[in-house]
Every structure is written in structure tokens, then in C-alpha cells.
Amino acid sequence: MKLQILITQYKETDEVVKPLLDSIAIQQGVDFNDIGVIICNDGTDVHLSKELMDSYKFHIEYWQNEHKGVSGTRNALMDMATADYIMFCDADDMFVSNCGLYQIMLDINGGFDALNPVFIEEYVKNGKTTYITHKDDTTFIHGKVYRRQYLIDSDIRWNEDLTIHEDSYFNVIALNMSDRVRICNTPYYLWKYRADSVCRHDDKYMLKTYDKFIDSNDALVDNLIQRGALDKAMFFCTHMVFDTYYTMNKPEWVNQENNEYRIKTERRFAEYFVKHKSLWDSVPTADKVNVSAKAREKVMQQGMLLEAVTIFDWLKGVERCLQDE
């Protein structure tokens, strides 16, 4: 089998999962003997019906697993998979194009270790739906395809200690440990909007979870160091420093009503920075300038910056934060 689509299922019902399976069923120009689906239930009593899965012409396996969270369940799916290539899908997403699998198969025939495509995000606010195109993304797993043996040989797995912001850890390692990475500029994957998705409807999601985002990067940098990829560890550490600096200079971070989130994040970042300060100090100034410019541009697209202090003064304050305790 050439490709298996791996789906974690927690409390998603038949009605939620059906659009994804339907979007696979209508794919054009592919041999469905080359395609399989594995769905793994993450230890809940919400089960998909046999009638639903038997209604499709492609092969579907459905497994029940003990509760491990999304990262642990994705590792279990990787262990179940046997195809040459694997693709992780969220149960509530779908293929936006009926030629998506045809495009993937063309790229598979050309050979790659990782396929990083453009994907589309559906976003709804105040009753208005918009569609956002994501390019050159490492933050989300959406639409990405990996050669299974490459992941095995490189010992690339999901970090089961990460329950949120887990995608970037996996993607960054998988996309940076090979020079056989393809880019696909034809979008075929839709990250669908769900009203009950916390990260989509809570405007304070990043405020509340930015410390976990730092956890993810911390684990990533540790992993890169263990792999001997010191230059990459330095880059992603530097990116984390500037991303945090510019993010915390956004107006919402100095709003008093969000003070508890700021204190929690500052404490976590202080621990991170002290731990990885030797990496930061080893990065040439010119490289820091380049990373700073990109990080600032990204955050500026999300709103205004205050930049009340320079990053150097801010980092001195970060270190004092721990020394004073």
C-alpha cells in the first residue's frame, strides 16, 4: 500500500468524521487499493459505527486504544501503519479538493521523505466565514505526508509529554532531518472550523497556553541537540527568544486583566532562557538580526507592537526574574 491516512478519534461521532471519509471517497484519478485509512479511538466510549466504515470502497481499520492523548495515539497509529507513506488527519477536517490524493500520489512517485503543502484554514467569527491560506508551515500537521521508513530510521516520533502545541515539535524535526523535502503549492487539505474547538473560539488561547508553546520548543531544542544538530538547535532557540519578545510586546500582554498569563509565561520563559543561554550567546549577531526581522514581521501581521524596552533590556529582566526568587 502506498499511503495510509491516520486519524485520531476522541469524542468525534459518525456525523463529525463522515465529511472526511466522504472527501476521501470522491477522490479522482487514484487506485483505492493504494490507499488505506486507520482510525484509532483514544480511550473513549464514543465509537464509530461499523455501518459507516463499511460504506466506503477503500480499506478502513478501526482500533480501540487506551487513553494516551493526541501524541500517544498518533504514535500508536504510526506503529499500526504498514504503507510506504503516512498522513495524519484530524477527524473533523477534510480534503478540500477531489484531486488531492492524485496530487499526493504524483509526488510519491517522485519520491520524498516529507511533503509540506499549502493548506486552507476555515475561520468563523461573528457569523462570517473566511478562508486563510497557510504556506511554508511547520506549526500544524495539516496535509503533510511523510515517508514511513524515513521516520522509523530517523527515530522521529511524537513527544507524548506534549498535549498541546505538539505539531510543531514533530514537524520541525521531520522537516529538518532530511534534504528530501517537497513543497506542494496546490492546496488540498481543509482545516475545518468547529465551534467547540478551544483553540479557535477562545481569543485568549495563546495567552493561556504560551507557556506550553515554550515547552514544545524546549523539547524540540533538546531533541536537536541530542541528534547533534547544534546549528538547528541554535536557530530554533533564537527564534523562540524573538517570538516570545515580540509576542509579549503585543497590547494584550500588558493588559492588566491578563496579568496572570503574563506572569506564568515570563516565569516559564525565564527558565527556558537560562537553560539555553549558551546557545543564544553562540548565535552570530547577523543571524540574530535576520531571525528578529522575520519574527517581528510575523507578529506585526497579527497586530501592533509596543516595544517599550529593547530585547537586551528585556532579557536582563528575564534573568533577574529567577535571581530574585
CATH topology of the largest domain: Spore Coat Polysaccharide Biosynthesis Protein SpsA, Chain A
Strand order of the largest sheet: 3-2-1-4-9-6-10
In DSSP terms, counting alpha (H) and pi (I) runs of 4 or more, how many helices?
13
Domains counted in the coordinates: how many? 2
Envelope shape: globular
Measured distance between first and last alpha carbons: 57 Å
Portion of residues within helices = 40-55%
Plain-language structure description:
The chain has a seven-stranded mixed sheet with strand order 3-2-1-4-9-6-10, sandwiched between helices. A four-stranded mixed sheet has the order 5-11-7-8. The relative contact order is 0.10. By secondary structure, it is of the alpha/beta class. It is built from 13 helices and eleven strands. 49% of the residues lie in helices and 18% in strands. The longest helix is centred in the last third of the chain and has 24 residues. It folds into two domains: 199 residues, Spore Coat Polysaccharide Biosynthesis Protein SpsA, Chain A, CATH 3.90.550; 119 residues, no CATH class.
